[in-house]
Amino acid sequence: MRNTLTIAGKELMGYFVQPVAYVVLTVFLLLGGWFFFSLLQHFSEMLQMYQLMGGGQTVEQLNLNAQVIAPVLHDLSIVLVIVMPALTMRVFAEEKRTGTYELLLTAPIRTTEIVAGKFIAAAVFTLIMIALAWIFPLILIIFGNPEVGVMFAGYLALALLALTFVAVGLFTSSVTQNQIIAAISSFGILILLYVISWPEAGGDTIKAILKYLSIPEHFSTMVRGVIDTADIVFFLSAILLPLFLTQRAVESARWH
Amino acid sequence: MIEVKDLTKTYGSFVAVKGISFRAESGQILGFLGPNGAGKTTTMRIITGFMPATSGTVVINGLDIFTNSLEARRLIGYLPENPPLYSDMRVEAYLNFVAKLRGVPRSEVESATQSVMEHCGLTHMATRICGQLSKGYRQRVGLAQALIHDPQVLILDEPTIGLDPRQIHEIRELIRGLAAKRTIVLSTHILPEVSQICDRVVIINDGTIALEAKLSELPEGSSLEEVFLHAISKEGHLPGATAEETLEEVGAGHSEA
Known about the structure:
- The complex is a heterodimer.
- By secondary structure, chain A is an all-alpha fold.
- In chain A, 84% of the residues lie in helices and 0% in strands.
- Chain A has one domain (2-254).
- Chain A has helices at residues 2-16, 19-53, 56-61, 64-88, 90-98, 100-106, 111-132, 135-143, 148-174, 179-195, 204-213, 215-223, 229-251.
- The radius of gyration of chain A is 21 Å and the shape is globular.
- Chain B has a 6-stranded mixed sheet with strand order 6-7-8-3-9-10, with helices on both faces.
- In chain B, helix 3 (91-101) crosses helix 4 (106-119) and helix 4 (106-119) crosses helix 5 (135-147).
């Protein structure tokens, strides 16, 4: 545990002295702000239009969560697909390239502690990033009357999704010493997990499996405000499996 | 004490180290010599537990580096070929990090860092960023991180490379001073360095041990250079090979590596 925290502390400090992390943070928040602004604009136009038409009932059906926050979260999840690989690509690849990998692997610490420490650091940075994106719901809470519970579920979904991306990114970084290869392959895996349920062919079993593996399936359920244990289990498995593979990949340096 | 027994390492079909055995005793400095590509770095990486051997064993003070890896690694200080520095960390923060990583108790981390910086002449560089250091200072920080937990066994891969003559002198004095209660294995290309500070020498060529001897037992009248060139010239079976030709071979090894 002590070793894990030592690694996590050093890694986390690393994020704050690195331009890449700030670029990722800025891109994420700027684009988020842009989506929020345009969706809110759209929402207020619709609101005015319905009021002019005098449809009182329709106005009540307009919902800040469904019309603004949910789409913002969906958009942000796409932004994460693009920026998270850039955040995680260096984690192992850079150590291999510069030779500090030798320091880590010859230190009296376990491989699991190395992987856990690096994951915790990346996870903390990512969660800070997502916490900062609470600025959008906060604005709505101040000026409107949205359902906080639904927004909470949505942000939980975004956090779980981001941690999944971190785990996948750590894995691809652990199997190469080239950061570009790490980033592109993690990007590819994440995109695949987005579109995996697209094919219509195959039997019902295959369709069901592909649907289960699809990230948007689980993500959108939670963004609608439904916290289902099945979705939580999916995300936790999607975080733990790549981490397990990462541990194996790092450990494999000690096999051959 | 380090006991290396029948160590073999293959990369695919390439055999880097072919069943070598040697011992390094406590209180001694063992010079590990050989042309580039001879298998020095591979051997050192196996001794430090960075990579496993294909076959054979390495035992550090009675602990097998493979089966008792954590305990054995605790005893070792290692300076790899390239000093393993994080380029965005400051020297002091980096050494604190390595101290914690190497299991120095929290309360002693700060004092261990200070004392090792003093030993390696880094005190005035404490707040410099590792990535901006000159080669000589990188090497010193590398040596400092190897010494920070006061290890019983020191593995140094070319410790004086890139240093200026005064620094080389200082580092050699430092290493000599450390030898009393430790086992030190040091690889180098600089033959006079071996004559100056080592007690024993192992010459490795093409993955096999070409010579293992005490420096005091080397044939009388022959310099270490002659012994080295003789040892790596295919066990001396090159009839009529002049020193120049043999040197060329050594040079060829250089450019390949």
